[in-house]
Specification:
single chain; alpha/beta; 15 strands; binds zinc ion
Length: 449
């Protein structure tokens, strides 16, 4: 294959990617709102768009690839959470940002070229609002500034919906100040004790959608190649980003290709804290090497839904442990067969199937196959640590949770019948597998060493 084919949400079809410029490529991924620890639903866009970045660097090696991912550090959710926790907004956003960055490292994602924070770009946002007001795409009402959706003919094109259908199909904030329910906020006044910045419309803060328009323009220009994010961001977030950027800069388009990853469910259900099926990346870090999580995410095509469960983790753990037996640190160029698979809309499941096929040759002692295999895994962001390190990692116990629980029950039964030799033997075996157990009154707890 001589081109990158990518499914463009804007046109709802797979297209040949043609760069806008002859020497540079711009890519923007909507980053986290730093109010809570990232979860498995946040991990997916991090990993799948990291693959896009790696493919762009590899396939367009004469171009400079500029990857930007923002950090939203001012938002209603942040203010609410900081109040709940009784800590300052600064402490909350700094703490969560730190965890987010360490999660990215754990998942072995390459760092973007820029990770701009919203609060460092208020000036750019105010400038953009002024342009929108001057061009009559926005209006001021009691210290609020709204974007007037009816002025932008292409509104709804990304979602492939007419504005009236968007109103009925989604939650749209109702306000008497708006001319039309779909109009969205660009600037709003801050309440007492909320962070605020001076502006021509009084002290206040920017709307969320505006942040991405202002920051992508600063680092990538008025138009750029790729805009990526989760499916849930299409409306209203991305629809609003397009409206703001196209109207303030008077361009024909904003991003040329729109990529959206599918939803993540946990055990077949929508993730929610109250249902107890909320999985943070920090939770996974306790028990699994990051490569296992990465491989499990890449096992589904990025546009398909992904159902997360223990089985998917344990299956991928076993696969990776088997593959690591044949690890070599050798580097070679990625084989064209593998690259071609990724050039077809980042088909990682097929890439992994191809790895399994090649693995059968690797096991027969075929040296060429082994080098090809190692290089392909490294390209995918796996095999990024030595064999010793991988096996020594406490997250790679050969015992899974169910097995540990079973052994602890056996040990408790042995202790009850005063069979202390057996009980001690089980404790030693567990320790050899990196499991520490502790007895307190009648309960036994355990953790990884
Ligand atoms: Zn965004």
């Amino acid at each position: 294959m001589t081109s990158l084919k990518i499914y463009n949400t804007y046109n709802n079809k797979k297209e040949d990617y043609v760069p806008i410029h002859s020497n540079k490529i711009g890519m923007y991924v909507c980053g986290p709102t730093v109010y809570d620890f990232p979860h498995i639903g946040n991990a997916r866009p991090l990993v799948v768009f990291d693959i896009l970045y790696r493919v762009l660097i590899k396939f367009f090696n004469k171009y400079s690839v500029n990857y930007v991912r923002n950090i939203t550090d001012i938002d209603d959710k942040i203010i609410e959470r900081a109040n709940e926790l009784k800590i300052s907004i600064k402490d909350l956003t700094e703490q969560v940002t730190e965890v987010f960055l360490s999660d990215c490292k754990y998942l072995n994602c390459l760092s973007p070229n820029y990770q701009p924070r919203a609060t460092d770009h208020i000036k750019e946002m105010i400038l953009m609002i002024e342009q929108l007001i001057a061009k009559k795409f926005a209006y001021v009402k009691d210290g609020n500034v709204y974007f007037e959706v009816s002025k932008f003919n292409d509104y709804g094109k990304l979602s492939n919906k007419k504005p009236k259908d968007l109103i009925s199909g989604a939650r749209v904030e109702v306000s008497e100040l708006k001319k039309n329910p779909l109009d969205f906020v660009l600037w709003k006044p801050s309440k007492v004790n909320e962070p605020s910045w001076d502006s021509p419309w009084g002290k206040g803060r920017p709307g969320w959608h505006l942040e991405c328009s202002a920051m992508s323009e600063k680092y990538l220009g008025n138009t750029f190649d790729f805009h990526c994010g989760g499916l849930d961001l299409i409306f209203p977030h991305h629809e609003n980003e397009i409206a703001q950027s196209v109207c303030s800069n008077s361009t024909n388009f904003f991003a040329k290709y729109w990529l959206h990853n599918g939803y993540v469910t946990v055990n077949g259900k929508k993730m929610s804290k109250s249902d107890g099926n909320f999985i943070s990346i920090q939770d996974l870090k306790q028990n699994y090497n990051g490569q296992i999580v990465r491989l499990a995410i890449l096992g589904s095509h990025y546009r398909q839904p992904l159902d997360w469960n223990l089985k998917i983790l344990d299956t991928n753990k076993k696969i990776l442990e088997g593959w690591y037996e044949y690890y070599t640190g050798e580097h070679a160029e990625l084989d064209d067969e593998f690259l071609n698979i990724l050039l077809d809309d980042l088909n990682t499941p097929q890439f992994i199937t191809h790895l399994h096929n090649l693995f059968s040759k690797v096991k027969t002692g075929d040296e060429n196959a082994r080098i090809k295999f190692n290089s392909a895994l490294q390209f995918l962001g796996l095999f990024n640590e030595s064999k010793e390190k991988f096996y020594a990692s406490k997250k790679v116990s050969h015992l899974d949770k169910a097995e540990v629980e079973r052994l602890i029950q056996l040990r408790n039964a042995a202790r009850k019948s005063k069979d202390f030799g057996v009980a001690d033997k089980i404790r030693e075996d567990l320790e050899k597998n990196g499991i520490i157990i502790e007895d307190l009154n009648d309960t036994t707890t355990w953790k990884y060493k």
